[in-house]
Amino acid sequence: MPEGPSIVILKELIAELHLHKPEIIEVAGNVKTIDKDRLLHQKIQEFRSWGKHFLICFNDFTIRIHFMLFGTYLINDTKKTALKLGLTFKKDELNFYTCKVDLLEGKADVLYDWTTDIMADEWDSKKAIKKLKEDPESYVCDILLDQHIFAGVGNIIKNEILYRSRIHPLSKIKDLPPAKIKELIKEARHYSFDFLKWKKENTLSKHWEVYSQKLCPNGHPIEKKELGKTHRQSYYCSICQKKYD
């Protein structure tokens, strides 16, 4: 599942096409969740990203694309996989595969809270801290995946920032010292931008300290378990990462 930085990369790749409010001259794909005819001859006002959502913004509605587990896209190219949604402009085309497509009535700025997007300029760390404290019984491994607090954080980012912060994934928010909560918030932001940089360099996996690793950087064995109420895969070092209780 693409995490927030990967959606930012898609937005930047489209920006390199220098499309200025392009008109859609052809709509293709087997998408059933939207009326494709509504897109035809519409002018796109903006391409945006919010967390794991890629947004195609029109005057009075927004197309949301979620890549789920196996979604992909191609710019000015196609592949044999069944096309979910294809948009053709005068000189370029965007093709989306194995993804979820929805039409949301209204403008993106009304529909989304940009202060919760870990990659956005509007990101508000104080708001994130406040929301964490409102859910004291949550395991940290669960709440880091809450897209209403950390939009864009996925399982890779979760595991890596917990190791960076030296926090065991089964620590509860109520047991974390205030300094640790601030450190966690800080690392969530910093690692997301490191992820973006390494993803662009195609070196992301070379920098993983615990995710899909057998040993941590200190040479201790990595444990791999489905933890928390979400039962998402966690990679952690029980020696380096302290369980607060």
TrEMBL record:
It catalyses: Hydrolysis of DNA containing ring-opened 7-methylguanine residues, releasing 2,6-diamino-4-hydroxy-5-(N-methyl)formamidopyrimidine. SMART domains: Fapy_DNA_glyco (SM00898), H2TH (SM01232). The keyword Nuclease applies. InterPro entries: FPG_cat, FPG_N, H2TH_FPG, Ribosomal_uS13-like_H2TH. The keyword S-adenosyl-L-methionine does not apply. Residues 2-100 form the Formamidopyrimidine-DNA glycosylase catalytic domain. It comes from the Bacteria. Residues 114-197 form the Formamidopyrimidine-DNA glycosylase H2TH DNA-binding domain. Signal peptide: none annotated. PANTHER family: FORMAMIDOPYRIMIDINE-DNA GLYCOSYLASE. Belongs to the FPG family. This is Endonuclease. It comes from Pedobacter fastidiosus. The lineage of its organism: Bacteria, Pseudomonadati, Bacteroidota, Sphingobacteriia, Sphingobacteriales.
